[in-house]
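Pilot study result, target chain (392 residues):
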Amino acid sequence: MNTENVSQDIHIKDYVDILRRRRDVALIFFATLVLVVTIGSFIMRPVYRATVLLLVDSESPNVLTTTGMVELQSQNYFSYKEYYQSQAEILSSYGLAKKVFEEYSLGSLPEYKRAKEPVKKFLKTVKVEPIRDTRLLKLNVDNKDPFLAAKIVNRMAELYVMRNLYYISKNELLNLLKNEYLKLVSKTSEQEKVFKDGHPEMIKVKKEMAELIDRIDQEKKSVCDYGNIEDYLSSGSNHPLAGFKANNVSIQDPAEKPIVPIRPKKSLNILIAIILGALGGAGLAFFFEYLDDSVKTTDDVEKIINWPILGSVPDIDSRMPAADAASPSRELEKDLFVNLNPRDPVAEIYRSIRTRLSFSSTEERPLKSILVTSPGPQEGKTLSLCNLGIAL
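Predicted structure:
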């Protein structure tokens, strides 16, 4: 027989015995955890997620320049990857979130009223998911109101697309202004051959050049403000590209009102609670067993001392008729139980103890006396001594 298998079987059996003894603790923990999670999952207000699908192209479409319609240069992989990641960060930027937060008065909602930084808390409900091996981005917004979630995410996507168009328009406007300036420089060089510096034509050209430089500086210093993007793009007087909206980002699929909440996931929560409840209950049972140093069985005694166990006698009271419980002679009957009930299993146990005692007596060291003792009074010393004496 393999001794390793035997020791392993005993080891596993010990764990099973612990779980059996401490099943009440394990079951209470299991039931409490599953009940709390189940109730919490059903009373929790559901959260919905609205999603917009955006296309971030690697290059802008054809745009208008001084020489007509031209195609912008294609970018290499690493440049586009950096640009793509930058766009993902812009979608979840503080400025964009703040604009939408204020536009929809989200600060009046209960979840944001007591927040120290409500906009940052709102940003935690915004998530950008790049779709691998594509040029698509998912913009998600979570909210307890499904209709509001769809409105917010659509507005964020709209502002993002407008912001990108704003920068394209600004860049093209700067290119046009720079080209105009170069034309004036060339014109000045030609006029210098004919006119002197004080000539009205020279003064006029230099004035135009100074105005162009001022406007170029103003355009460079201007910062994107989500509050005036729409005005800028819709006003023809602000720039020569009004109505020409070349853009390399677009909304592929706008968000619709979500129907199914993303959380709580009731089935998943209950399943996890069942698993954790079972593991936690078992762990708690083992922990209680570790803290418990009391002796309950003969196995516990054998673990503490190296002495042989002669036997374990069950409670004799449970073997006697309940009607005789108040009888004055009940104690005497218990002391004489082996004599009065010679075929009872308890009598057999006492005879078994007698047999083991006889085996412990040898010719060299004969058994002369037996001591029966216990830690305290009324624990069965007299009963054990009398019945063992009868058996002997």
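One observation from the pilot: Confidence is low (pLDDT under 50) at residues 1-9, 61-72. A full batch analysis is planned for the follow-on phase.
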